[in-house]
C-alpha cells in the first residue's frame, strides 16, 4: 500500500472519529440544556423572580404618594393589594385623602434591595423583605429621608402577585414580628 493511501485512510478514520465525538457532544449538550430549561428548580427560580419584582413594586407603590395626584396614588395602592389589606385601604380611603390633603406632603420610595423570604408557589403565598429609602417633602422645609425595611406577604391572584399584608421589619433588639394587614407605615 502506498504511503499516500495509508495517510488518506488514517485521515478519514480520524475525521470520522472526530465527527462521532462532535455529534455525541452536541447531543449531550442539547439534552443537558433541555433538562436545565425544564427543571423544577429553574421554574421555581422564575416564580421567585416574579414574586420579588411584584413585591418590590407593590411596597414602593405603598410608600409613594403625592397630595397633588392623590387619586392616582391611592388607585395604585388598591391595585397593588388584595385581601384584608385591600379592604382596609378601600374602607379608609376618604379619611386618608382628607389627612393627606391637609398635610400636603409628597412621599417617594426607592427600593434599595429586596429578597423573597418564603415562597409556596403551589399555595400561591409568598413573603418578602424590602429595604427602602423613603423621602417625605412637606410644604415648608427640607425633604427628610429615612431608610426602612418592610415585610410583606403576597398572594397570587388572577391579576398576578399582590400584597396581602405589609408591616415594618423589626430592627436591632426588636422582637420578630410578622406583617400585619395595614396600609404601610
From TrEMBL:
The lineage of its organism: Bacteria, Bacillati, Actinomycetota, Actinomycetes, Kitasatosporales. Residues 165-185 are annotated as: Disordered. It comes from the Bacteria. It comes from Kitasatospora kazusensis. Its main location: membrane. Keywords: Membrane. This is Nuclear transport factor 2 family protein. Residues 174-185 have a biased composition (Low complexity). It is found in: Membrane.
